[in-house]
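Support request, please re-run this one:
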Amino acid sequence: MNILLVTLFSLERNTSVAISNINITKGLLALGHKVTWVMPNWAQCETEFDASQVRVIRVPGQDQPRQVDWFRNKLRSHFGFLDFTRSYLRQVSKVHLPDEYFDVVISTSDPKTSHVFTARLLRRVNYGRWIQHWGDPLLGDITRNFWWPKWCIKLYEFSILRKADKVVYVTPFTCQVQQSEYPRIAHKFSFIPLPADMYQTHTENNPDCLRIAYLGDYNPVFRNLKPLYEACVDLDFAQLTIAGHGPKYAPQSNITILPRIPQDQALEIENNADVIFCACNLRGTQIPGKILYKTSSDKHILIAVDGDYRTEMIQYFESYDRFVICENTPEAIATALSSLRSRAHNYKTPEQLLPINIAKEILS
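Re-run finished. Output below.
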């Protein structure tokens, strides 16, 4: 099939959605499909995206649309449904697409503007089906604090969703909530997890030293990393590295605190680690993408469950038979880490998370 994909975050940009999009692309190519991407420019490639295997059509404009000052950004966060990428909407008419038929069009978010952009783009495209692939939903996005009443947000989100032939959500909890919110179009909604980020690692056991890595932002409003920090302070065998934007915890002899770092440096830390630590969100239905991305490695993946869907998430993660799961408390984390000191790194990527299988599900 001839497939057109659209995003307003370039695949060369180091973001979670880029990892997802790259691996969906790998799955589509493995199935033998022809892939065309519409996306903005990005100054330098920060990911493993290989543009030689696909056709890339660039959205005209700056590598990064100009972000406004703090005050205006706050106003837009409260009063606007879309983020700063909405400036790309003025460029839709300038995107030059080939005069050919696309069997399937897939728009991916974040940013949610990608779906609005695609709706306008498709006015002049000959295509079969439009699939929207969503990360955070608009109504249930815990990172936004809308001034608008709920019915206004629902009306706007419905106007986007109803145009699609299929809508994909990446957690079962988000899909269930969205089906409840939009019963008229619930039949369009599907849950399909994020694909594993396929790469190989080889980790040797060292019971005298357990190296733990948390790589990512940890705004305490959304994610609580304090239990991990407190657990490792009292564990003489633990060597913890935290890298990302968040509260500035005090470094310890066995705890390194870093700001957000380049991807190559993050990968080096991760490759040297024994345990990849993931903390679930305190609110909402979403799951941190790295939990599933990292299933292809041989690392222990320790998930500290938290938030509104704690019980349901434990059941969901257990279904993969891949993760070590505990409550997000210092005591539970310390117990889990102690149990991992001598556990072998003999993990296999769950079949259902392989990029080729995820691509099949999206197209089904």
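The chain is about 30% helix and 20% strand. The mean pLDDT is 89.
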